[in-house]
Design brief:
single chain, mainly alpha, elongated
Length: 332
């Protein structure tokens, strides 16, 4: 071994651990911190006081539309019965606002209607880590009060720098959550490959607004693979395709195991979301050793490639009816 080759091996052994660590950090954005560190980030200025939304918003008209939407939203409509004050207001998320309006009167005398409050004294929400952003919401929307958030802390979204602010827009209208028609486009921002699949010839009717991603996936987290709402792929599919759920006397082994063995859930270039066209799909399991495989010398072999297996085996997902010999051949 020459000297240059030995030097290269030593350099590779030195840099490899650093490259691996850099790749891991790049995959998750930035390293996770203890929850206490994120709590410190969202405390706000300790020298500021809470003044209430009325005192803050009344100082200028720039936020009239935002405050009106908020007042008619699900957050603004929740009022404390003993005080008549809203349970959630601007300072619940932006932090205490006394310093923001402290010098506003002097600024109005100098700049007139162009005067602005000092937003630098409020929480800089956009620069906070995703975990800190979510923690602002989780102070109220805990798993005990919102059951759908029970899996959020360990979900794939939370672990990949997705926060509540990534999907929920509290200032865009009183609804304060994504509408049914906008759900798919929201997901496509991070999942462009799925959008491509839904544009294929055969697809679930997401493009037609008849269903959306949330019908199958729970974006807030799930103990199941791919954030599925069902315990398995089959459980998720049979929520809509109940006629395929069975149980059947004669069952198709692969069908009872996983629907994605044959179907591509988002979209496919073949009919009925099949991963491969028939008969090639069936021949992946029912090979030359299968009793119904046509022999190469038989002229009927050409017919199998011109027809679909389901022409005869029409009850492909399962059947309760035996054939003339009492066998379960999945025929009607």
């Amino acid at each position: 071994m020459n000297r240059n080759h030995a030097r290269n091996l030593i350099l590779m052994a030195t840099l490899l651990p650093a490259l691996i660590l850099a790749g891991c950090n790049g995959a998750t954005g930035r390293p996770l911190l203890p929850v206490a560190e994120y709590e410190k980030m969202i405390v706000g200025r300790v020298d500021a006081d809470y003044v209430g939304t009325g005192n803050c918003v009344a100082q200028c008209h720039r936020h009239d539309k935002i405050s009106d939407d908020f007042r008619h939203s699900v957050h603004g409509e929740q009022i404390k019965p003993e005080t008549g004050l809203p349970l959630v207001n601007c300072e619940s998320c932006h932090g205490p606002g006394s310093l923001a309006i402290a010098n506003l009167e002097a600024a109005k005398q100098q700049h007139g209607d162009k005067a602005k409050c000092d937003t630098s004294t409020l929480l800089d929400l956009k620069s906070l880590p995703a975990q800190a952003q979510s923690l602002i919401c989780l102070r109220c929307h805990s798993s005990t009060s919102t059951s759908s958030l029970s899996h959020w802390p360990t979900s794939v979204h939370a672990m990949h720098d997705v926060s509540c602010f990534s999907c929920h827009r509290l200032h865009e209208g009183p609804q304060q959550k994504v509408s049914h028609d906008q759900m798919a486009e929201l997901c496509y921002q991070c999942h462009p490959d799925v959008k491509t699949q839904f544009n294929l010839f055969s697809h679930h009717p997401v493009r037609e607004k008849k269903m959306n991603c949330f019908d199958c996936h729970d974006p807030h987290g799930s103990p199941n693979n791919a954030l599925l709402k069902g315990a398995t792929v089959r459980d998720t599919c049979t929520r809509c395709h109940m006629d395929k759920s069975g149980p059947f006397i004669f069952e198709h082994g692969d069908v009872t195991e996983n629907c994605s063995n044959c179907h591509s859930p988002h979209g496919s270039v073949t009919r009925r979301l099949l991963t491969v066209t028939m008969p090639y799909l069936c021949l992946q399991c029912h090979g030359s050793a299968h009793q119904s495989r046509l022999m190469s010398a038989d002229s009927r072999e050409r017919a199998i490639f011109a027809r679909r297996c389901t022409v005869c085996h029409s009850m492909i997902h399962g059947s309760d009816t035996p054939d003339s010999q009492g066998h379960g051949t999945l025929r009607r």
